[in-house]
Design brief:
The complex is a heterodimer of chains A (115) and B (112). Chain A is mainly β and 115 residues long. Chain A contains no helices and eleven strands. In chain A, the strands form two sheets. In chain A, strands 2, 4, 5, 6, 9, 10 and 11 form a seven-stranded mixed beta sheet that branches. Chain A has a four-stranded antiparallel beta sheet with strand order 1-3-8-7, with no helix packed on it. The chains are: A mainly beta (115), B mainly beta (112).
């Protein structure tokens, strides 16, 4: 199984809503990532979890709250988002972010629209 | 910081060969990745270079010159399905973490 899955595929929410994005992998990877990607732009790193601990937070606003319940799951909790937060949210996983030959594998993404 | 540069857009003909270049300026270089991304989909891993030279994988090849801060992705026998964005990502060693930074991507349009 070399797949990273994400749910939901599409999400439309209002600025006062609370929602969560989910990501799952069963490759035994110990690093998981959240990226945000706007149209025609490269993915921007948001958070990195390594061995279920938050290792990198790229100064992301607190309206985005990550959670790693176990080594296979990664959530992104959303609250009081702004329309400019509308984007494709990508989850990725890799064997070990500290490994020399580490390679990231991406999920299909969640297309988020904030009204 | 890092500076990664790729052409914004390229066009090519079905059946032809195209070379997509990527130049970078960084310290602590630790490898270069190429990803393919179709519109609205996730990036998919194509290749990884950490030593100088050419890596070949079927129709796709990737080349790296560390001294020149330069890589290219070569696509042969182009097919219409190769129309996509191609992302160059450079990984650096930042205190024991090896996380790649993505370039802006090159949008490749393959026409009949």
């Amino acid at each position: 199984d070399t797949e990273v899955t994400q749910t939901p595929k599409h999400l439309v929410m209002g600025m006062t809503n609370k929602k969560s994005l989910k990501c799952e992998q069963h490759m035994g990877h110990r690093a998981m990532y959240w990226y945000k990607q706007k149209a025609k732009k490269p993915p921007e790193l948001m958070f990195v979890y390594s061995y279920e601990k938050l290792s990198i937070n790229e100064s992301v606003p607190s309206r985005f709250s990550p959670e790693c319940p176990n080594s296979s799951l990664l959530n992104l909790h959303l609250h009081a988002l702004q329309p400019e937060d509308s984007a494709l949210y990508l989850c990725a996983s890799s064997q070990d972010q500290g490994a020399f030959t580490d390679t990231q594998y991406f999920g299909p993404g969640t297309r988020l629209t904030v009204l | 910081g890092q500076n990664i540069d790729q052409p914004t857009e390229m066009t090519a003909t079905e059946g032809a060969i195209v070379q997509i270049n990527c130049t970078y300026q960084t310290s602590g270089f630790n490898g270069l990745f190429w990803y393919q991304q179709h519109a609205g989909e996730a990036p998919t891993f194509l290749s990884y270079n950490v030593l100088d030279g050419l890596e070949e994988k079927g129709r796709f090849s990737s080349f790296l010159s560390r001294s020149k801060g330069y890589s290219y992705l070569l696509l042969k026998e182009l097919q219409m399905k190769d129309s996509a964005s191609y992302l160059c990502a450079v990984r650096t060693d930042t205190g024991g973490s090896y996380i790649p930074t993505f370039g802006r991507g090159t949008s490749l349009i393959v026409h009949p």
